[in-house]
Amino acid sequence: MSKAVSTITLQKYKRDGRKIVALTAYDYSMAKILDKAGVDLILVGDSLAMVALGHRTTHAVTMDEMLHHTRAVTRGVSTAMVVADLPFMSYQVDITQAIMNAGRFVKEAQAHAVKLEGATRLNLEIIERLVGMGIPVMGHLGYTPQAIHGLGGARVQGRSAEEAVKLIDDARALEMAGCFSVVLEMVPTVVAKMVTEKLKIPTVGIGAGNVCDGQILVTDDLLGKFTDFLPRFVRRYAELSQICEDAVGRYAEDVKSTDFPNAAESFLLPKDEEELLYKLLHMEGAAGEVC
Ligand code: KIV
Question: Which residue from 91, 107, 124, 259 could staple onto 254, CB 3.0 to 4.6 Å apart?
């Protein structure tokens, strides 16, 4: 069995130039597949709201829903590090709320770390407190989906010099506050490169070029399971939605034609036992009718 991945492992990977492989998961069976395939970090992302629950944005997913799915994921993992996403309005109110919710992920769902979006003054304080009590925190900069309305849509961040400098400063502040890693989402490659070079902690990119210390994608995008839209930065490695549709179509045909289930897929009794049981059931039925 491989050794469990920790914050120390990921920081060593950065120093050694070994890229970090990260993906999202929302349930037991997918977490098991990713873990077996050697994924280093599994994020129970709040993208769950969109790809698993059908909401238009990540806002609607609740702490209880995130906990429910995080529990399922941690049950399927033996090696990867599991990071749980703090959902919208689970940490923005005050430090106490943030600590209670981050603590629930570790205590009730066995998550190894939590992730939050942005580098506000409150976030930096939250990170310091959580790290101080032994809860590792992953940062998230660039396009931060919980701020979609404030940002005016899912847009590339850090295009201007001013925005790029702010992004670099924010990344440094997250590192100083104690984050073990930072996700960089939808930022120009040149900015991601600068951040990656300036930080000692690893950057994990999504739509940030191949210059980051690792890459993350939403697994349902990579596998072609979620097909409502396809972000430009996604590479599809399978067309699961099509494969599933074909398989279900064949099942429907087999049910209608009575080809399914066949004898091997049924519980047939030996002929004599079957005949006897049939007769007995028939007599029971007849007796019932007489009564
Ligand atoms: O929620 C999520 O899946 C994420 C990743 C896209 C980084 O935050």
Answer: 259
